[in-house]
């Protein structure tokens, strides 16, 4: 998993509450278990019209936001059904951070397992960041995980809280498997000892 330290990029304003996982990645894209290639399906029912052409009104289709790395979203982002394809699609598109006041628990947890930072901020701070993100190509934010702050284009700073262990894992690019593998020597020692006293296992 790629480390998350400091991210600077264009932030796309998605001022919609209750963006659910089916909006993030519709059900027809769930047939694969590959983590790559899902970016094309990200927000597809909003990004594309019925004939397959782009919807010019959707934020990620606007020239200033096509290369966005950050999404500033309304409350309760990632609600709905549990599907890890949602963070996979965001990551494959190039999104490494979603900023909101709140996230659905399962989506929130899945983000950390895939190297995406879901940053929780206050409603007041979200309004400031949404305004920053509405500036088109000038909507550049810097997200500093070590300092736990988001810096706006005018120098304003918004702080966010994060669990210390999750912060450590993101900074070091560790998912659950990576954390376990850090204990590889201890696991090997235990297995050798177990084989000695319980050879039938």
Describe it.
This protein is of the alpha/beta class and 201 residues long. It has a single domain, classed as Aconitase, domain 4 (Alpha-Beta Barrel), CATH 3.20.19. It contains eight helices and seven strands, in the order βααβαβαβαβββααα. It has helices spanning 21-24, 44-47, 85-93, 105-113, 123-133, 164-172, 176-181, 184-197, and strands spanning 6-14, 70-73, 97-100, 117-120, 140-144, 149-151, 157-159. Strands 4-3-2-1-5-6-7 form a seven-stranded mixed β-sheet. Strand 3, helix 4 (105-113) and strand 4 form a beta-alpha-beta unit. The chain is globular and about 65 Å long. 31% of the residues are buried.
Query: How much β-strand is present in the residues?
Result: 15-25%
Structure classification = alpha/beta
Provide the CATH superfamily: Aconitase, domain 4
Tally of helical runs: 8
Topology, number of strands: 7
Q: Main β-sheet, in a few words? A: 7 strands, mixed
**End-to-end gap:** 33 Å
Based on CA inertia axes, which overall geometry fits? globular
Any descriptors?
alpha/beta; globular; 201 residues; Aconitase, domain 4; 33% helix; seven-stranded mixed sheet
Please sum up the structure shown.
This protein has 201 residues and is of the alpha/beta class. It has 8 helices and 7 strands.
